[in-house]
From TrEMBL:
Residues the record lists as 4-aspartylphosphate modifications: D56
Pfam families xrefs: GerE, Response_reg
InterPro entries: CheY-like_superfamily, NreC/VraR/RcsB-like_REC, Sig_transdc_resp-reg_C-effctor, Sig_transdc_resp-reg_receiver, Tscrpt_reg_LuxR_C, WalR-like
Top-level taxon: Bacteria
Positions of the HTH luxR-type domain: 153-218
Keywords carried by this UniProt record: DNA-binding, Phosphoprotein
Molecular function as annotated in GO: DNA binding
Domain Response regulatory: residue ranges: 3-121
Cross-referenced SUPFAM superfamilies: C-terminal effector domain of the bipartite response regulators (SSF46894), CheY-like (SSF52172)
Organism listed in the record: Porphyromonas loveana
CDD domains from the UniProt entry: LuxR_C_like, REC_NarL-like
Descriptive protein name: LuxR family two component transcriptional regulator
Length: 223
């Protein structure tokens, strides 16, 4: 099971997360909790890095973006899901550049928490629907000004099957692998396999690159 450390300064919120995650069988185990950046630093120094950290964007002694940036430098294999009660273009942009695997609203439902952990654990990226829309807007706004800097041969959309394009459309609209599977009458594992194959086929390493490509090629409606 995925070993997780919760980092949030509100004890009741951590308790709620712990209970919600404990109800998900054979997926994850909470092995530690921290209420501040300093507590997290002490934990990592004493216990080492877990598989995943669920990290609040705002802590009393630190900014979650800065903390995530440092963690990704010191523990490159560590997976991070950010928690936030607010969503802004700047925060999303910063976290995409850092390379965090997930970004989830603190208003998320239990099913969203399960989807986020499951998606990130299996090598994917999880963004809520509102966050996926911001990513798409960022990709559109950048496409004109940065296209001349990209010297890599761009993949051809014709390389994708109709089913793969449908998977891309659902994922770009912020649906998890489980939700996509329900819409397409597939298991979430089949969707995860499709997602992995799509990234490999197109030569991308994460969902942000896939969304940028999908917007540029007109595979999704971003308005």
């Amino acid at each position: 099971m995925t070993k997780i450390v919760l980092v949030d300064d509100h004890e009741l919120y951590r308790m709620g997360l712990r209970v919600a995650i404990a109800q998900i069988q054979d997926l994850a185990e909470i092995i530690g909790e921290c209420g501040s950046s300093q507590e997290l630093e002490d934990y990592l120094h004493e216990q080492g890095a877990p598989d995943m950290i669920i990290l609040d964007i705002r802590l009393p002694d630190g900014n979650g973006v800065d903390i995530a940036r440092r963690l990704k430098t010191e523990y490159p294999d560590l997976k991070i899901i950010m928690l936030s009660s607010e969503v802004s273009e700047k925060i999303v942009n910063d976290l995409l550049e850092i390379g965090v695997e997930g970004y989830m609203s603190k208003m998320a439902q239990t099913s969203d928490i399960e989807n986020a952990i499951r998606t990130v654990t299996t090598g994917g990226n999880f963004y809520g629907k509102s966050i996926a829309k911001i990513i798409m807007d960022l990709c559109v706004s950048r496409s004109a000004g940065h296209s001349h800097k990209n010297t890599r041969k761009q993949p051809n959309p014709s390389e994708l099957t109709e089913r793969e394009i449908e998977v891309i459309q659902h994922l770009c609209n912020g649906l998890s692998a489980k939700e996509t599977g329900e819409k397409m009458h597939l298991s979430h594992r089949t969707v995860e396999t499709h997602r992995s194959n799509i990234l490999h086929k197109l030569g991308f390493s994460n969902a942000a690159e896939l969304i940028r490509y999908a917007v540029k090629e007109g595979l999704v409606d971003w308005q």
